[in-house]
């Protein structure tokens, strides 16, 4: 049961987080290859009602990594020139699993349409290339940082449960995350 204070926090932060997501065009990806070697990269994204969609080439390292391991971390971050301090840029991070979307499926059509609506006809051209794959990123838990001492964990269905993190930015142990991964 949600307390009145928790509901006020949720009512204030969730619209702010949604606006923050809408204002970003790309997300940072932390992927790993089959041997566990990490790679940091980025991809343009579109947000639909069922998750984040990215269209990436399997010729790119992160495209190959997402096919080898579906566990990743994602970050949306405020531009440096918009931030009051580079030490406390607003950011939204979340642990996720990547789901390779089959071509010609309803989900593929939906994801490509979301990306095309955001980025134009270039998406349609890329989606027609056989080395480009559509992935749906499914967030499991998140952290929204507004600034110093203002970190909020996000959990639950669609990351709608908000909790003020007063004990630092601690993540989920790898073993727990692996239990939530999609095979």
From TrEMBL:
Gene Ontology molecular functions: coenzyme F420 binding; oxidoreductase activity, acting on the CH-CH group of donors
UniProt-listed Gene3D superfamilies: Electron Transport, Fmn-binding Protein, Chain A
SUPFAM superfamilies per UniProt: FMN-binding split barrel
Protein's UniProt keywords contain Oxidoreductase: yes
Keywords from the named record: Oxidoreductase
Positions of the Pyridoxamine 5'-phosphate oxidase N-terminal domain: 14-145
Highest taxon above the source species: Bacteria
Keyword Oxidoreductase part of the UniProt annotation: yes
GO cellular component, one term: cytosol
PANTHER family (UniProt xref): HEME OXYGENASE HI_0854-RELATED (PTHR35176:SF6)
Record-given protein name: Pyridoxamine 5'-phosphate oxidase-like protein
Taxonomic source organism: Shewanella piezotolerans (strain WP3 / JCM 13877)
């Amino acid at each position: 049961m949600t307390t009145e204070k928790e509901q006020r926090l949720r009512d204030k932060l969730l619209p702010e987080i949604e606006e923050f997501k809408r204002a970003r065009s790309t997300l940072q990806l932390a992927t790993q290859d089959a041997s566990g070697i990490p790679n940091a990269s980025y991809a343009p994204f579109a947000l639909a009602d069922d998750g984040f969609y990215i269209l990436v080439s399997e010729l790119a390292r992160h495209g190959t990594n997402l096919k080898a391991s579906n566990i990743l971390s994602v970050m949306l971050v405020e531009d440096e020139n918009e931030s009051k301090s580079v030490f406390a840029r607003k950011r939204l991070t979340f642990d996720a699993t990547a789901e390779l979307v089959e071509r010609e499926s309803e989900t593929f059509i939906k994801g490509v349409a979301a990306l095309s609506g955001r980025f134009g006809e270039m998406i349609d051209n890329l989606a027609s290339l056989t080395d480009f794959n559509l992935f749906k990123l499914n967030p499991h838990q998140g952290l929204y940082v507004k600034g110093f001492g203002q970190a909020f964990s996000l959990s639950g269905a669609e990351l709608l449960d908000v909790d003020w993190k007063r004990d630092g930015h601690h993540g989920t142990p790898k073993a727990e995350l692996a239990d939530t991964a999609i095979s």
